[in-house]
Amino acid sequence: MKIGNIELGEKPLFLAPMEDVTDPSFRFICKEFGADVVYTEFVSSDGLIRSAGKSVAKLAVSDFERPVGIQIYGHIPEAMVEAAKIAEAARPDLIDINFGCPVNKIAGRGAGSGMMRYPDKMVEITKMVVDAVKLPVTVKTRLGWDENSKIIVDLSEKLQDTGISALTVHGRTRSQLYKGEADWTLIGEIKKNPRIKIPIIGNGDIVSARGAADAFDRYGVDGVMIGRATYGRPWIFKEIRYFLENGVEMPPFSLKEKCDLAKRHLIKSVEVKGDRVGVLEMRRHLSNYFKALPDFKEIRLKLVTENSVAEILRTIDMVWEKYKDLN
Questions:
Q1: 105: left (phi > 0), else alpha (psi -120 to 50), else beta?
Q2: Does 259 participate in catalysis according to the annotation?
């Protein structure tokens, strides 16, 4: 599979862009475990053109994580074009347009999956962005706005015709948010369409190696994107690749491996963002690394409230000492 001139090999795995999750330290960890393509957290086009500090900070990418995409969102065509140019100057490998975020503060004002109500405008913005930058442009979107407006099969042709290099489809409508099961049947229909020549990446409810393999085999997608299943389990990419190559599941990740990984992740987060922010943004990950352990409430509380890096490292050591017999 290729995106533009980026060669990704067979059955590539993508880390979904997720706000407050896919920061540089998490992308670093997921890349270590075999994510073929990673994305920044989504970046507001309005924030970029106003040089808002938080938006600009999200543009930072490193050579280690390549190929890496910067994802932008917005609903004003001119702002999206300018934001794409600013993002291109940060030297990612591709620009991704977010037409998929379902949260009210984004979709409610016509951005993200809110654009599904205005498909002509979606196509217009995509074409303008493609024409404005030299990097490959990709789109991530959903099936439609609601159950009665699943427009993605026809829309995919129009998006392809703008010149995008790949299309990612999440198998839910905007109205579903993240509820219910993802429906991959329409993603499969897109792949069966003889007019579609660009890579199609499927997204939604990929939580296991077998599930990823099934998505490739049953629906014929070119790539699979994993989102929420990476919380506390970035090694899922390694699990999937192992299954694809060997036909059997990888041995389970051990508690010792999880403890060592949690430490490395924390240290990387602090290295990138400093002690205060690095610790704050690790709390979501630390609690998820150990969520299956019994009687964990007290230690979990310490992990998500402690501000000292050294103390958190000691707490992770406590996890190993307390639960090593379960390993």
A1: alpha
A2: no
